Amino acid sequence: MKCKVCRAHAVVDIRRHNAAFCQDHFVDHVNSQVAKAIKEFKMVTAEDRLLVAVSGGKDSLAVWDILMNLGYDTTGFYLDLGIGGYSGRSKEAAVAFADSRGVKLIVRSLREEHGFSVPELSTLTGRVPCSGCGLNKRYEFNRAALEEGFDVLVTGHNLDDEVATLFGNVLGWNTQMLGRQRPVLEERVVSAGAARAFVRKIKPLIRIAERETAAYALIRGIDYIVEECPMVEGNTQHRYKEALTLLEEASPGTKHRMYFGFLKNVSDRFAEDRGATELIPCAGCGAPTVASGAHATGELMCSFCKTKALAQARRAEREDATGRGVKRR
């Protein structure tokens, strides 16, 4: 197997491109694919300040590395979710990467900010861990980007992630989510002329498969956390990934054709299903939340505050019950 560019020994083959690359030209290929995605979908400008959400995993650290290679102004953001030793090791990987590159990493803790970890929120509210985790990350990522004055929020979602999400949304015909599944979600404001409510969100790795980000991280010497989150067991999206990988092995390019075919031919047909566009400040935290019908009164609470309030109420009930039990004894 020889490199498509220089004919030297190849270390990575990409069957959907019918190509293989040596180390140097594979890194060049990945960088060019990300640059192509940024240009094609007008993700950022050279003047934008980018906040990169990092988990300590291969994808988020790889996209941070690539964006630095491409010359963008980037800062990392790590949110400690309080998932035992896993979060500790994830944080160490993110900090070590930032130190090795001499770049800034903002670190916040969900417990320190709000008094709860993801496992505690799941236990108290009965919410599926991955669902609660996603809610917390979306809220805190956007909050950090706004507070720190960043223009764009970057996530490390790769081609496999996006295709699996698309597959699940099609199976359930979740037209609202299909309407929002784009490589770029533009910034939004609460009302005309007001300050931003949501920063622009981008996914530069949409042309890169998960296997390729792992190879990129290895070649670039990125020491990432290999283990999966211990709370992800049974996650439906992982089943979708496994099924799609079988199809990709049988017919290389299936994932790319499905995702980019959707963006080109179908995505705009779900534009009307993206949901209400009017935003109002949350009565609890001031963050933006969707106004609709009778709720558009300024007293509506965002999903994050509702979840947090429920957790606080359940915790108080348990502490009260425990206290009553101690008194009876």
Description:
Helix content is 49%, strand content 13%. By secondary structure, it is of the alpha/beta class. The chain has 2 domains: 38-227 and 234-275, HUPs (Rossmann fold); 276-329, no CATH class. The chain has helices at residues 23-40, 58-69, 84-101, 110-114, 118-125, 129-147, 159-171, 175-180, 210-219, 236-250, 254-265, 303-328, and strands at 12-14, 19-21, 49-53, 73-80, 105-109, 152-154, 184-185, 188-189, 196-198, 200-202, 279-281, 288-290. The termini are far apart. Helix 5 crosses helix 12. The radius of gyration is 21 Å and the shape is globular. A hairpin with a 6-residue loop joins strand 8 (188-189) and strand 9. The chain has a 6-stranded mixed β-sheet, sandwiched between helices. The chain has a two-stranded antiparallel ribbon with strand order 1-2. The protein is built from 12 helices and 12 strands. The model is unreliable at 293-298 (pLDDT under 50).
